[in-house]
Amino acid sequence: MRSEQSEGGKQVLSGYALKFNKRSENLGGFVEIITPGALKNADMSDVRALIDHNPGQILGRTKAGTLKLAVDEVGLRFEVELPGTQYANDLYQNVQLRNITQCSFGFLLAPKGDSFEYDKEAGVYLRRLNNISRLTDVSVVTYPAYQDTSVDIAKRNLDQYKQEQNSAETEALLFQLDLLKLQNEGNF
């Protein structure tokens, strides 16, 4: 996942909420894999971006245009323009510091939308998600079920942040030079 600030100064996160053909952690006796066609018929018309699947910490929504989703050959990519809330700013800072780096998703399955088989090599059941009927949320999470997901500051925002940091450092140095100049001239 990436984070960035847009031209209007908005903070933006992007990444993959899910990736195809990647194994989840052990979810209590089984491991999941999402097949590439699992989202083919999924209703993604009203999906929320959340923090840790908490509906009280909404980051964006497809219906509002603040959350954009795209399915590609890797999985489900998202980009969310964060609101000006304290919890969104805290999340942005944690992503920037790499304290939080992964995502998750909430979903409903179509009838017979999954299948199970026993993986003798791993010693667990393997659940394949083949047909998700509705995607409910994409969440930036502290503890993901799928380690291969990602979240980060969107690149263009990171570049702007670096420019702002350099500008602030330059201003501080110029201020210190002005003070030294005044001291040397005896005006301070």
From TrEMBL:
InterPro entries: Peptidase_S78_dom, Prohead_protease. It holds the Pfam family Peptidase_S78. Keywords: Hydrolase, Protease, Viral release from host cell. Residues 3-163 form the Prohead serine protease domain. This is Peptidase U35. It comes from Terribacillus saccharophilus.
